[in-house]
Design a protein that fits this description.
The chain is mostly helical. The chain has 17 helices and 2 strands. The longest helix is centred in the last third of the chain and has 34 residues.
């Protein structure tokens, strides 16, 4: 935070400086809250990404008064800049408020148990989801390969992979073919990997567990490698696997995760762009302060552009969010399906390159106004509280928490229509795997087994 404050005196306007400090303080508070009383994966990574993407870069961009995408005038309207900073602040505050509200004793209930690890077993549902994910990814392999230019297409650059898919008719980021090729196989592979790791940790001597893990990691290498895939997908795969391997839970390990996440997002994240370009390309990958003036950190500029869009066209009143939720519905079935918000905003600004990010705060604000954005992010915070609590209390939920903690970065970066399919499918399968059911519907999994329609009695301690 200190080095960002170094640029603050060069920013024009006391109101803008104040809001920049507020955003730095809010995101820093979120990060610290995420580890001070034990590692909370979802909260920590939510605010690590917001800090590195929407809190630090705007300070530098406004201090030199330079925009991205050859748009030198984007920050000239100080009222739009001020409103964009307020959108970031309100969005981050809403998420943190929801999280703290969900973590309060009254929200948890007076009878909420202390955080403790319950006895762990592998359920039938978890085994079925694991096998479904592995077999599904294997079955899709010969189906997907022709659309990426053959098996070697899984290991070409992202630009080449995109061009191959476009030639096959899958250029629509929210289309069914694009989902089949890019979304479903990767989600299945990551789900298989995190479930396999959990199984190996529980039964390290079983050869079958190691065989399942080997198959899962091979599928991750094919479907979620950083060469041909968006960074948030390959990052979700790698980081979720690491979280499941080490399962950090203490304050010390949480602080280490936060430190590595901030360092990686600020300094290594831009370098991953090297995988986007084909060998021999003239494109340059930026690093250092110059990276803050590239598309890797275009989030705040896109919020400013969103303010311009709403000033000219008004809010979209739920259509964008509905289209993101119904991501798998093709446009041939739903002709009125919304154009992704990032494209609307970029077109309105006159950019010729439309595949840009759009922060979730801006996307929700464009679609649902401040009221809808606050409600959505408070709900996000409440849900994150419950999942982070399960990270410590029940091991069967850890694959879901690890996946959601990292996959949410794609949702934060946006657009929702591009990230919702991958995050939603993976989370759904892991939720099914963790939601253990006994033979009697609704029975508590910790209850003793039923026999002949009757609950077996517990041994009495009385004589």
């Amino acid at each position: 935070m200190a080095f960002a404050l170094w640029w603050l005196p060069d920013v024009d306007g006391w109101t803008i400086r104040f809001l920049l400090v507020v955003n730095l303080a809010l995101t820093t508070a979120g990060i610290v809250t995420g580890y001070v009383s034990g590692f909370r994966p979802i909260l920590t990574l939510f605010f690590c990404f917001n800090y590195c993407w929407l809190a630090v870069p705007p300070v530098y961009q406004l201090s030199v008064n330079r925009g991205i995408w050859h748009d030198p005038w984007v920050y000239q309207d100080r009222a739009a800049v001020t409103q964009a900073l307020a959108i970031v602040a309100v969005g981050c505050a809403a998420m943190l408020l929801g999280y703290l509200r969900g973590a309060s004793p009254s929200a948890a209930g007076d009878s909420a148990p202390a955080v403790r690890q319950k006895p762990d077993t592998i359920s039938t549902a978890e085994t079925r989801v694991l096998l479904f994910a592995i077999l599904g990814a294997l079955v899709l392999l010969p189906i997907v390969a022709p659309y990426v230019g053959g098996f070697g297409g899984f290991f070409q650059s992202r630009r080449e992979a995109t061009q191959a898919l476009a030639r096959a008719g899958g250029s629509d980021v929210s289309g069914g073919l694009n989902a089949l090729v890019r979304t479903v196989p990767g989600a299945l592979a990551v789900v298989a990997a995190v479930l396999s790791i959990r199984r190996v940790k529980m039964a390290p001597r079983l050869v079958s567990c190691w065989m399942l893990l080997g198959a899962s990691l091979a599928l991750v290498l094919v479907y979620a490698n950083p060469l041909a895939n968006a960074r948030y997908k390959s990052m979700t795969a790698l980081a979720a696997i690491v979280l499941m391997l080490f399962r950090p839970s203490s304050q010390r390990s949480g602080r280490l995760v936060a430190f590595l996440a901030v360092g990686g997002l600020l300094f290594l994240y831009p370098l991953a762009n090297v995988f986007r370009y084909a060998a021999g390309s003239d494109d340059v990958v930026s690093s250092g302060l110059s990276a803050f003036l590239t598309g890797d950190f275009d989030g705040f500029q896109q919020i400013v552009n969103s303010v311009y869009y709403v000033n000219r066209h008004g809010h979209t009143w739920g259509l964008q969010s509905l289209s993101a939720l119904l991501i798998f519905v093709p446009r041939s079935v739903w002709p009125g399906k919304a154009t992704p918000t990032n494209e609307l905003v970029a077109q309105d600004r006159g950019y010729d390159f439309l595949n840009l990010s759009i922060p979730v705060q801006a996307e929700l604000w464009v679609d649902l106004t401040f009221v809808g954005m606050v409600i959505a992010l408070v709900a996000w915070g409440v849900l994150a509280t419950r999942l982070d609590r399960l990270w410590h209390s029940e091991a069967r939920w850890q694959p879901l928490v690890a996946f959601v903690a990292v996959a949410q970065i794609g949702l934060i970066r946006g657009p929702l229509s591009a990230a919702a399919g991958f995050a939603g499918l993976g989370a759904l399968l892991l939720w099914i795997a963790a939601r253990r059911r006994t033979q009697a519907a609704g029975a508590d999994p910790d209850d003793p087994p039923r026999s002949n329609g009757r609950t077996a009695s517990r041994p009495s301690s009385s004589p």
